[in-house]
Design brief:
nine-stranded antiparallel β-sheet, alpha+beta
């Protein structure tokens, strides 16, 4: 494999001789994925010789081997269903079940690119999908997904499934998780044509180590912009055509935060979170900055500068503590009391079970109380020791604990019961 994880050679044995196949891989092509352009074969006694060459458009167009050119024909899923010669005569056909098991074929042309147009490895009995190998007989990948999954999307928590266990509608060309530019949580109510486009290669970004650390602000921004565009165009979700869905995505990508976020996704979750925390959130309306910053801070709590505080066993209390961190950050950037309070209300509404049922007045009052804590300056800046460059979570945790106690009292909960507290507030970690 090369430094980018692309397979560039394979060596097999027939029990006597070793055969090495080298692949010339090009990752800049119209398909959007790394593709094999040439195959060279060699043995210990034979110099490398060109065996096959491939031509690509939006899909694999043709292969040339031994002076003969073969052209590919696909079905709606992108699977190779037939091969034809230079006279447009069909030479080979293929039939698959839903998960890619080849159940019938005709012809004898040597061809490796079959189910969903991807490379079949007959030596392994699996499809090579770049980041991972896929075994159609099991409908599972050979190795785990690097994406840890999201509780917002339960099916993503399984590490080995292919195409969300729905291969009739979904493909996986990379073996990695993908980031949908139009979040799947916002697809409800859209037409099947629109959903099909939102799940197409034109509307996703490959994400090798994808997580949802900064998606709160992104999802909210996309939701706002979609509603604005639909309202201006006088369109309904249920009647949206594929062309209109494409126009909607083009509108979304004119937004500086949305386009910047999508550009950073392939760089990995750490780089994306850093961008959101340092630059990206400034491109959002003030009312949405809290959600973006809180998710970024939560990731830091799990993997970075807040890790020491989490290890103290106070994770269940940090959800509200992170809300305070967000509020203080907004104050430091000059946001108004009203904007900060509104952002905190959103955080409490979505992050604290039972608060929504307490009513608007309770939410608003609690938000202003928490905002006052942040305004007092008794939070993260006091926890940072400049001499040791370490973050000590004591002050932050005291404030978070006080906030949780107040909320629990208001909801008649028993703060001394660790099961109750953990069940209510442990979800953030």
């Amino acid at each position: 494999y090369d430094a980018d994880g692309n397979r560039v050679s394979k060596t097999t044995s027939d029990g006597i001789n070793l055969l090495t196949t080298a692949y010339l891989v090009e990752d800049r092509n119209p398909t959007g994925y790394a593709q094999v352009m040439e195959e060279w074969t060699s043995t210990a006694s034979q110099a490398p010789a060109l065996n096959r060459t491939y031509v690509y458009g939006l899909d694999l167009v043709s292969q040339k081997q031994g002076g003969s050119v073969t052209y590919y024909g696909y079905d709606g899923l992108g699977s190779t269903r037939y091969l034809s010669d230079s006279n447009a005569s069909t030479t080979d056909t293929y039939t698959y079940d839903a998960f890619g098991i080849q159940i019938a074929s005709t012809g004898s042309t040597l061809n490796q690119f079959r189910y969903t147009g991807e490379q079949w490895d007959s030596d392994l009995g699996m499809y090579y999908l770049r980041a991972r190998y896929y075994k159609p007989e099991l409908g599972r990948f050979w190795t785990m997904d690097s994406f840890e999954g999201s509780i917002e999307d339960p099916s993503s928590l399984h590490k080995y499934t292919y195409g969300y266990n729905n291969p009739v509608s979904n493909c996986d060309f990379s073996g990695n998780a993908v980031h949908h530019k139009v979040p799947q949580s916002l697809w409800s109510g859209f037409s099947s044509q629109a959903k099909e486009f939102f799940d197409s290669a034109d509307a996703v970004v490959e994400a090798a180590a994808h997580d949802f650390s900064s998606h709160g602000g992104y999802n909210s921004r996309v939701d706002e912009l979609m509603k604005e565009w639909m309202r201006e165009k006088g369109l309904s979700k249920a009647a949206l055509s594929k062309a209109q869905a494409r126009n909607l995505l083009e509108f979304l990508e004119k937004d500086a935060f949305v386009s910047g976020f999508n550009r950073m996704v392939p760089s990995g979750s750490k780089a994306l979170t850093k961008w959101v925390y340092e630059k990206g959130h400034l491109l959002l309306p003030q009312s949405l900055r809290a959600r973006a910053l809180k998710r970024a801070t939560a990731l830091a709590g799990r993997k970075g500068w807040l890790g020491s505080a989490v290890k103290k066993g106070t994770g269940p209390f940090l959800s509200l503590g992170l809300t305070l961190l967000t509020a203080e950050r907004m104050y430091a950037e000059g946001c108004s009391d009203k904007d900060v309070s509104k952002a905190i209300v959103d955080d409490l509404y979505f992050g604290v079970p039972g608060m929504a049922e307490q009513g608007v007045n309770t939410l608003w009052g609690e938000a202003n109380s928490l905002a006052a804590h942040a305004r007092s300056g008794a939070f993260s800046y006091l926890d940072y020791d400049a001499d040791t460059a370490q973050f000590d979570g004591s002050t932050s945790l005291i404030i978070a604990d006080e906030a949780v106690n107040a909320l629990l009292e208001r909801q008649n909960r028993n703060v001394a019961d660790p099961v109750t507290v953990g069940g209510l507030y442990g979800g953030a970690f």
